[in-house]
Design a protein that fits this description.
Radius of gyration: 16 Å
Order of helices and strands: EHEHEEEHHEHEHHEH
Structural class: alpha/beta
Mean pLDDT: 90
Strand order of the largest sheet: 2-6-1-7-8
Distance between the termini: 16 Å
Low-confidence stretches: none
Length: 221
């Protein structure tokens, strides 16, 4: 396959990660979970005792961060200062930290080169909030993935339960709506669709049905 870049953007819980992983496998390309990078920075901020309402206090500590992306058994693993954090970055509170740190210009600049370098060296499908607008503005295919708030919250609750981190539907829905607003309204790289993005509503009940529909969109783009 010739070198290809696919950008998938959209809000939390729309199914970006699960669908992107499946598309990567079907097309024989690398999946890049950019959200995991921001979650790692958020995890680091919390470990430093930095609160959400004082998140800018993270900036002087960025020099202490060494983030490395490795692919082990075709799975992306993010290492923080030599340690694979695994599912610890998937905690619900870390989602809020990830949203907050992603609005800091210094953090975005810190991670930008890492993301671009992976895409330069590999055929990739990369998902996040600003892939088609900032990270890969010249991507071959740009998708903006959405789903209803209720569908997204149910998926997130199920995901957390499967990871042994249960949370109430009401809490997840409330946090998701707050994060959406934070992501859309931030001054730096707001979470909006690229002008040339294809909008894809992933409110499908069946995963296989959604995957086939998305693959068709990508192949026809």
């Amino acid at each position: 396959m010739s070198h290809i870049q696919i950008a998938i953007d959209g809000p939390s819980g729309a199914g970006k990660s699960s669908l992107s992983k499946a598309v990567a496998k079907a097309m024989g390309i690398i999946y890049v979970d950019t959200g995991a990078l921001y979650r790692t920075v958020g995890y680091f901020a919390r470990s430093k005792g930095i609160t959400l309402d004082n998140i800018s206090a993270l900036v002087p500590h960025l020099g202490e961060l060494n983030i490395e992306v490795r692919y082990e058994n075709e799975v992306q693993c993010v290492y923080l200062n030599g340690e694979n954090l695994g599912d610890r970055i998937r905690e619900n509170e870390i989602s809020m930290y990830a949203s907050k740190v992603s609005a800091i210009p210094e953090v975005r600049a810190f991670l930008l080169d890492t993301q671009k370098d992976i895409a330069r060296k590999n055929s990739v499908i990369m998902d996040g909030r600003d892939i088609g607008t900032v990270i890969l503005p010249d991507a071959d295919v740009k998708i903006f993935l959405t789903a209803s708030n209720e569908v997204r919250a149910r998926r997130r609750v199920k995901e957390l339960e499967e990871k042994g981190m249960p949370a109430s539907y009401e809490e997840v829905l409330s946090d998701m709506i707050k994060r959406d607003e934070q992501d859309r309204s931030r001054d730096i790289a707001p979470a909006i669709a690229a002008p040339d993005a294809i909008h894809f509503d992933n409110s499908y009940e069946g995963f296989d049905e959604a995957l086939e529909a998305l693959l068709t969109v990508i192949r026809n783009a």
